[in-house]
Write a structure and sequence with these properties.
Elements: H1 12-43, H2 53-70, H3 74-98
Protein name: chorismate mutase
GO biological process, one term: chorismate metabolic process
Organism: Sphingomonas rubra
Length: 99
């Protein structure tokens, strides 16, 4: 099935196919992001360097700004990124401990 851009969809089947495709792409992007967490755990000299509140705030602010630029709900993106960053920190701590 050809995946249509959202504005071109005329049926729920087309919408669902597009959403499913975007979800696959998002999971692939998350896999790439978590690979960076593996690298960070390998590079950082101490476990105490994993959590960086200033960096966390900057990452979330950047995501919110990009959401605003793209016209999507900034608060929703901020909430998602809060969870994503916390999950990334937990993942990185576990990766650090495995090392």
């Amino acid at each position: 099935m050809t995946i249509l851009p959202g504005p071109d969809c005329t049926t729920m089947t087309e919408v669902r196919a597009g959403v499913d495709q975007v979800d696959r792409e998002l999971v692939a992007l998350l896999a790439r992001r978590f690979a960076y967490m593996d690298a960070a755990a390998r590079i950082k000299p101490e476990r105490g360097h994993v959590r960086d509140e200033a960096r966390k705030a900057a990452v979330i602010a950047n995501a919110r700004a990009e959401a605003t630029r793209l016209g999507v709900p900034e608060a929703v993106v901020g909430d998602l990124w809060e969870r994503l960053v916390e999950a990334s920190i937990a993942y990185e701590l576990a990766a650090f401990d495995r090392r």
